[in-house]
Amino acid sequence: MNIIISEIIKIKQKLNKDKIPHFIVAIYILVAFLLCGVFYINKKFNIPFEKLTGDPALIFKSHPFIGFLSNIGILLWCFTASICYFSGIILFKVNDTKKSLFFLSSGLFTSILLIDDFFMFHDYIFYSFESFKIVQPITFAIYAMLLLWYIIKFYKIILDSVYVFLALAVGFLGLSVLIDLIFESSGLEYFIEDGFKFIGIINWMLFFSITAYQTILTKLK
Fold first, then answer.
1. Axis-axis angle for helices 187-220, 68-93 (nearest 10)
2. Where do the TM regions start and end (predicted)?
């Protein structure tokens, strides 16, 4: 027992030294917020808890590979956002404020795209409200303006990196949006639309992964 207490004290001292408790508290607050959100959705929309917390494939008795490419895309969004946030924090610690802001802004932008894609906000959620029938083109326009601001704000950092991957990402994602707005989402058109979107996400991930690696490696030299 004394050994366990001693180890706990050592861990506590280390956490205090590294100022990690603030991060841990923030994580638990986020967890509490999410659980409260589940409870709210249950009461507001009368959706059973087992459908809110369970696995969709089990709930709808569908094959686990349903939505395979979409799920991989979501994981890639998550992967990219995590890299951006982690890199931004590391660079902030070494007093590279400009590049820290670049990666943190990139992480936030990626998180917005992730949440929209995963929860189908512009594809489904907003369509449940009568006043949001034109939300899809408006959402795309907002994303375009955010991207334009992002490029203008950080163009020097972008040009000093492997920007070809960012250009490919924007190009393929743009083609996916264009197909979505022009053609019906069915058959071959649907496959092409989602194929372009997936290639766009891949290039988005490559751009930030390589840029983060090169930036942090430079700081370590």
1. 20
2. 20-41, 65-92, 101-122, 134-152, 164-183, 195-216
Judgement on whether residues 53 and 137 belong to the same structural domain of the protein? no
pLDDT in tens, 181-190: 777 766 777 8
Are 97 and 126 part of one and the same domain?
yes
Domain residues for 12? 1-61
* DSSP H helical ranges for the chain: 2-18, 21-45, 49-53, 56-59, 68-93, 97-119, 135-153, 155-159, 163-182, 187-220
pLDDT digits (tens, 9 = 90+) for 36-91: 988 888 888 888 888 888 877 777 778 878 888 889 999 999 999 999 999 999 99
Q: What is the mean pLDDT of residues 173-192?
A: 80
How many folded domains does the chain comprise? 2
Please give the Cα distance from 157 to 149 (Å, whole number): 14
